Amino acid sequence: MKVRLRALALGAGLSVFAGLGLTPTDAKAWGTDNYTDTKYPIVLAHGMSGFDQLFGIYQYFYAIPSALESSGADVYVTEVPQFNATEARGEVLLAQVEEILALTGAEKVNLIGHSHGGLDVRYVASVAPELVASVTSVGSPHGGAELADFLRNNLSEGGFGEAVLSIFANSLGDILSLLSGTSNEQDSIAALWSLSSMGAVEFNAAHPAGLPGSWCGEGQAVVDGIRYYSWSGDRALTNALDVSDPLLGLTTLVYDEDNDGLVGECSSHLGAVIRDDYRLNHLDEVNQAFGLVHLFGPDPKSLFRAHANRLKNEGL
User: Fold this and answer.
1) Which of 93, 100, 173, 184 has its CB 3.0 to 4.6 Å from that of 81, i.e. a possible disulfide?
2) Cα–Cα distance measured from residue 5 to residue 95, given in angstroms and rounded to the nearest whole number
3) For residue 207, which of 285, 140, 275 has the smallest C-alpha distance?
4) 269 is an active site residue
């Protein structure tokens, strides 16, 4: 059974954990096997405009935590600023990782980040490698996102368009934060820079672990004792019933390479590349919306479960 950490902390008298917006599980779920029973807790990190749960019910990683818990995984879903620079988001994530370790007594965590969250987990592993057993990115723009470049190139710096985007995105972030019961500082212009190709160059120079040595290659699977993995999809339109598909079909027009609607196939590469061509779009990768994915594609929940088993078999 999932328990909000702030409620658990208050009930146990551990006020230091209150208000962090973390979502833990019980120590181990009552499952029929230990397929996903990793040595270290699994920490899920959302992407831009993400959240842990809206209204305490609707999950960003839709039905994925329970799928992992059912076979023994200890899962925590974090929340960071919806729109902000990777470094700012990463610092918030790092604080939550430290609290998870303090709460569980674990030595390290397995970090899994979707989209911008994949950059956040890289940041945490870079600045606090002693706390991290593995880093996995799912549909993350390690080489930048062409949509971010398109928006930056078509919005004059300090101009009206940039101001409108900033107001709209920051307000959206504030609303999502409110609905998830947290309070986060928003900076959409900084977020856009972080996801651009120039922002990626700057970030990658400071935090290079796991990056491919050449475009579309694979990076080192193990760096400083931390294992690095990645996977992504390469479809924008996957389910006619999913209302988000048309928008992703539109955004894919600014990309030169195969992509999931928001992130290019090669840009998603980090460490050992599990696959970069699943029949999934950017939202399908976290089982959105409401699990409406490609009829003949993989079940995202199964991908996360298989990866947890992979981590388990690596002793992580």
Assistant:
1) 184
2) 14
3) 140
4) no
Nearest CA-CA partner of 195 in 147, 254, 251, 156: 147
- Return the beta strands (E) in the chain as ranges: 42-45, 53-54, 58-59, 75-77, 109-114, 132-138, 222-223, 226-233, 272-278
Neighbouring C-alpha atoms within 13 Å toward the C-beta of 43: 34
Question: Considering 71, 115, 137, 177, which one is annotated as catalytic?
Answer: 115
115 is catalytic: yes
Q: Which of 46, 142, 207, 282 is catalytic?
A: 282
Active-site pick, 187, 234, 260, 276: 260
Asked if residue 7 has pLDDT above 90, the reply is no
User: Does the annotation mark 294 as catalytic?
Assistant: no
**Closest Cα partner for 233 from 274, 267, 288, 277?**
277
Read off the pLDDT of residues 64-78 as tens digits, 9 standing for 90 and up. Answer: 999 999 999 999 999
Model pLDDT for residues 52-102, shown as the tens digit of each residue: 988 888 899 999 999 999 999 999 999 999 999 999 999 999 999 999 999
Hey, where are the domains in the chain? Answer: 5-313
CATH topology of domain 5-313: Rossmann fold (3.40.50)
Amino acid at residue number 35: Y
